[in-house]
Amino acid sequence: MAEKEGSTLTVVLAGSVNLLIAILKLVAGLITGSAAMLSEAAHSVADTFTEILLLTALRVSRKPADRAHPFGYGKARYFWSLLAAVSIFASGSMFALYEGFSTIFGAAGEQTSPLVAYLVLAGAFALESVSWAQALRQVRRDAADQHRTFRAQLRHGDDPTATTVFYEDSAALCGLLLAFAGVGLHQLTGAAVWDGVASVAIGVLLACVAFLLGRANAALLIGRQAPPDLVYGIRDTLAAAREVDAVVDLQTMLIGTDSVLVCARVDFDDTITAGELERVCVRLAGELQAKFNDVTEVFIEPVPRSDEDLRAAVLARYGEEPRV
């Protein structure tokens, strides 16, 4: 529950801040005629739309499992987060690149009231810092809960909402600095090309952020295995059971935030009866779910480890003797 409330607060705060900043930047861009300011306005509009998509992701992913979706709707969070990454590229990056190149290669525009741009950029930086700090706290909290470093959480976390907000707010702060540099150099040199260069840099920055977020969410949507420490913990727990001779194969997949599907092929002691085997499978599944909070679904299949076809399938998947 705390994770859900934290993610929702992070997204709502970011969305509110981005909407206010978008209006301020748009007004400043129209007054000053700055391409960088207009690009930053498009950036904030894209970020606001992104928050709407992330709120949709949070709402849909929390729906309970049903007959059509027996494993729940957890992956919906990855789908909507992927769309959010696409929106950053389509509505933010492309507009910024267009404005930038139009300014660089088009007719030079006259700069008016640069002080307005400076004031808006300073105010936007302060507001954006509030949202960024909340996203930073959320990612750090998630990293501590998963016993990961901050960097590892950004790369391997299974909750894309806080990560998306952190990346986009970081890009927003960098974009504000670029816009400030573009407006300042335009004022100092009288050359509008600097304004255009800043706009192009903002567009490239947004494209890079969109690529990072898109790649991460695509991996989660396709089906990524659980973190290695969890996989090894599951393997060791199964192997330690007195009825288990060997863990032949172990497959895991993230099916949502804090939700892992486990499929294990296990060679059991041949002396136990069919009834005992059934009870052991139920017991082991319960032990895994009790020991590892993220494990929500467990399937255990009794197999002989001497089966050559099974061994060949495992080797074909991992490319070497499996260590699970």
From TrEMBL:
Keywords: Membrane, Transmembrane, Transmembrane helix, Transport. GO terms for biological process: zinc ion transport. Its main location: membrane. GO terms for cellular component: membrane. The chain crosses the membrane at residues 12-35, 78-95, 115-133, 191-214. It is found in: Membrane. This is Cation diffusion facilitator family transporter.
